[in-house]
């Protein structure tokens, strides 16, 4: 698989490490994982009673940096950040202080030539 796009879903899955492992498993070398979730830097992550995992930009360090990934021994993947940002996707989100975090990650697998420095 070349691309996985997960918007407003990952925060509602109980086992984020399993989600990241499965995304890594099914992606082709250099495959692209695009995640958009409400950030803990505002109200959105906590206001929805269906959210069971909570994310901000630093959450992705545990999947993209060896210094942090070593603290999550169940994580088997390797991702490289292409883009990581916090933003308001629309006026409603801005007016209600509901920032989102967006992560664009490449699957680092044999056969993929990384772009730039690799931290994991």
Give an overview in words.
There is one protein chain. This protein has about 120 residues and is an alpha+beta fold. The protein has a single domain, classed as Rossmann fold (3-Layer(aba) Sandwich). It has five helices and four strands; from the N terminus they run E-H-E-H-H-H-E-H-E. It has helices at about 15-25, 45, 60-65, 65-70, 90-95, and strands spanning about 5, 30-40, 80-85, 100-105. It has a four-stranded mixed beta sheet, with no helix packed on it. The longest helix has 11 residues, at about 15-25. It is globular. The mean pLDDT is about 95.
Unreliable parts:
none
Query: Largest beta sheet, briefly?
Result: 4 strands, mixed
The SSE order reads EHEHHHEHE
CATH architecture: 3-Layer(aba) Sandwich
C-alpha Rg (nearest Å): 14 Å
**Level-1 CATH class name:** Alpha Beta
What name goes with the CATH superfamily?
Answer: Vaccinia Virus protein VP39
What's the CATH topology label?
Rossmann fold
Number of helices: 5
Strand order of the largest sheet: 1-2-4-3
Strand-residue fraction?
15-25%
Query: Helical percent range?
Result: 10-25%
Give the CA-CA distance, first to last residue. 22 Å
